[in-house]
Amino acid sequence: MSTEIHHKITAEEPRIDFRTNPDEYKHWNLTFDGRVARLALDVEEDATLVPGYELKLNSYDLGVDIELYDALQRIRFEHPEVGAVVITSDKERVFCAGANIRMLSQSTHSHKVNFCKFTNETRNGIEDANNYSGVRFLAAVNGACAGGGYELALACDHIMLIDDGSSTVSLPELPLLAVLPGTGGLTRLVDKRKVRHDRADYFCTTSEGVRGKRAIDWGFVDEIIPRSKFDDTVAERAKEFALESDRPLDAVGIKLTPLTKKIEETRISYETLTIEIDRDLATATLTIFAPIQIPPEDVTGIENQGAAFWPLSMCRDLEDAIMELRVNEKEIGTWIFKTEGAAAHVEAADKLLIAHADHWLVREIILFMKRTFKKIDVSSRSIITLVEPGSCFAGTLLELVLAADRSYMLDGSFEGSNVPAAEITLTEMNFGPLEMPNGLSRLAHRFLNDPSDIEMLKAEVGQRLDALKAEDLGLVTFAPDDIDWDDEVRIAVEERASFSPDALTGMEASLRFAGPETMETKIFGRLSAWQNWIFQRPNAVGEDGALKVFGSGQRAEYDKKRV
After folding, report:
1. 318 is a domain residue
2. I need a labelling partner for 92 at 20 to 30 A (CA). Which of 290, 371, 520, 546 fits?
């Protein structure tokens, strides 16, 4: 693994690396017993992402969640035999106290928002595995469970609470901290667990939480179990759920090898993509490269290539690039996507995936691709895609055009160039497998799910579409010729840099999710918008705000005006 850093990193905001592996875990114990994996939280108090706080009571910071995300990926790809995962605690009488309050109180606004977004994406990944991968998740709550700890349990398919007279589940953020549960707790209570809204109101405005009979009667948990029977019942239930899985017992997983990544002042290089950063224009240009060779012909070839199989390798690189830019390059407000290489190779990869979509490994790769592209949808950055000669915007990579806030495709070739004119190509991958958070394909979203438009576009699958045809079909925003190209792209980028980042974030988030609302869009849209606002209000983060004075014995001072 190659990493070079030539970038000034301050003590206050160190560069955060999202790469890890089980040998490096400090906070999670991951074990396997046949069809069941056990993922137990045992936070090392002093192993914080930055100095200034301690992770007491199994509270967590971003570093804890980075490990959790990595563990989930390894369960899905490296252990196909696993049909059930038990999430629990290895600490006595405490499950998880949620996000660390000291960490939140000293963090910048952007870090708090990015922290919440990443934890939301991780919990959505748990639900994705529950819904589509044949992996059931059980939360074995064996002690006090508060805030983000209960939000982690809510992401699981089944919640089991120890009935010992003291262990509770709670969402105390509003009464104690003057903020909202940041990881989808409010939405999951009413949308997923179907808790009545009046009961949810009571629950979210009391710091004590609920236990025992009320916890199960009101729908906050699925089972309450005496301490003496807890471990045996959890083991029994996990085995029952594992038996329902369609994951193969005899398959061999693939090793998720370390990413190759080189970081320089204005350039970050991966195996399948590069990032060029222009700090004056506040842009990052991400160029994704098509596979050099034709993809394998069958699943055996995919298994042999393992993590080097291009769709998987590309999405692992892209996901890390997204997180790198979100967290470590906060002032880079516009992401420009380009591609290079043989479009036919991208098409071939798509055909291979579609043909074997029922195979466990192919299924996991497609689901990972879907989750990765969703990260673009919910990123608070302006997205511009440039389709130029030499591009390979076909199928999977065409999603970058469809996800963009604005796209430009050159009509013809650049003067003096012998590179053929740009083309784009639809594949079956554009019609459903890579759906957005709102449950629509990006094509269906683009045309507001008009069946006639979608049927018309299906007739174009496999066709090489030039710029004017692509513009006519509504697949790109503009198709300037080489005379106007530079000026139009320059104006678009400079204009973006001149606007308020706050206003752009609000506008983009409002426009990107037309059509139906889902639990995901509520979490990333409605909840995130409110939390973003609340995180800047003095009632939460002022000198006398609840986050600042928590634990000091001092009462928070609130501005009582409703706004």
Report:
1. yes
2. 546
CA gap 542, 328 in Å, rounded: 25
Q: What is the CATH number of the domain that holds 477?
A: 3.90.226.10
Mean pLDDT of 32-48: 98
Give the span between the Cα atoms of 522 and 528, in whole angstroms: 8
Whether 365 and 229 share a structural domain: no
Distance CA(21)–CA(483), nearest Å, equals 50
User: CA 448 to CA 512: how far, in whole Å?
Assistant: 11
Q: Do residues 212 and 315 share a domain?
A: no
Do 409 and 287 share a structural domain? yes
Q: Which residues pair with 288 in a beta bridge?
A: 273, 339
Q: Residue 46: is it exposed, middle or buried by C-beta count within 10 angstroms (0-12/13-18/19+)?
A: exposed
Using alpha carbons, select from 372, 404, 413 the residue that is nearest to residue 386.
404
Q: E strands of 334-388, at which residues? A: 334-340, 382-387
Same domain (yes/no): 56, 131:
yes
Residue 165: give the domain boundaries.
22-243
Q: Kindly state whether residues 363 and 473 are assigned to the same domain.
A: yes
Are 165 and 224 spatial neighbours (Cβ–Cβ below 8 Å)? no
The residue among 371, 329, 365, 433 whose CA lies nearest residue 122 is 371
What is the rounded (10 degree) CA torsion for 462, 466, 470, 476?
120
- φ/ψ of 311, rounded to 5, equals -60, -40
Q: For 181-193, what is the mean pLDDT?
A: 96
Which value, to the nearest 10 degrees, does the dihedral of the CA atoms of residues 534, 535, 540, 541 take? -150
546 falls within a domain: no
Gap between the Cα atoms of 41 and 59, Å rounded: 10
Q: What's the pLDDT at 525? A: 86
Question: What is d(CA 70, CA 67) in angstroms, rounded to the nearest whole number?
Answer: 5
Closest CA to 28 of 14, 47, 15: 47
- How many structural domains comprise the chain? 2
User: What one-character-per-residue DSSP string does 416-480 give?
Assistant: T--SPPP-EE--GGGGTTT--TTSS-HHHHHTTT-HHHHHHHHTTTT--B-HHHHHHTTSSSB--
| 221 and 279 housed in the same domain | no
CA 447/CA 442 separation, integer angstroms: 9
pLDDT classification of 12: cutoffs 50, 70, 90:
low
pTM over 0.90: yes
